[in-house]
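Risk register update: the risk of archive-format incompatibility is retired. Evidence:
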Amino acid sequence: MSLERRKGYDGTGPGAITPDGCAVELWERLPVGDEPDVIARAAPAGARILELGCGVGRVTHPLTERGFQVTAVDESPEMLARVRGTRTVRSPIEQLDLGERFDVVLLGSFLVHAGDLAVRRGLLDTCRRHVADGGCVLIQREGADYHDNVPRERRIGRDGMSRVVSDTPVEPGVHAVLIEFEFPDARWTHTFRSRPLDTAQFEQALADAGLAVDAYLTEDRTWVRALATG
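Archived output:
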């Protein structure tokens, strides 16, 4: 099923492309990083986790293997078809209202940097709406140098390469980012909009949604635990 592409987002390459320009077959190839470790350290054992923007389950599967009860949310049916062994919900994140609350709400993949302010507010409102009393929201944010030193590249596994080809301001506070992914047998591109946030801007965005930083969980301050206020 084809969904309308989000404005400013695009992708090319083999297989299905999601509304935000992600290639499903590419994401199946990308290895998971330290995200499951960071989340596991911050979440109570066996916690009920609402994972917003789960994709193909790169983080979902390691979390379920560690005993967490994950509800995995994505707007792409092609992404959700790759998620196994847990409950899935198809929905745009900013429209989600399950009528439930969770020990942990997870907003990874730098989604908090959505270029559209209304979308960002919707994402954070969804986090606040679904976090239980005494629970927490775990958010992944961009590193301080994410939009610097472009072009740049890094290896993916043994035979892949990703390149940040360009990072161009397109409107006040918003950048258009183009990334290429190359493997011996396939090539993909991903174009998306990102709104850089310094610490003060990030914390104000949380405050506007009724959330506050409890702790920065990693040395580079890219993972944050937030709590509901009021």
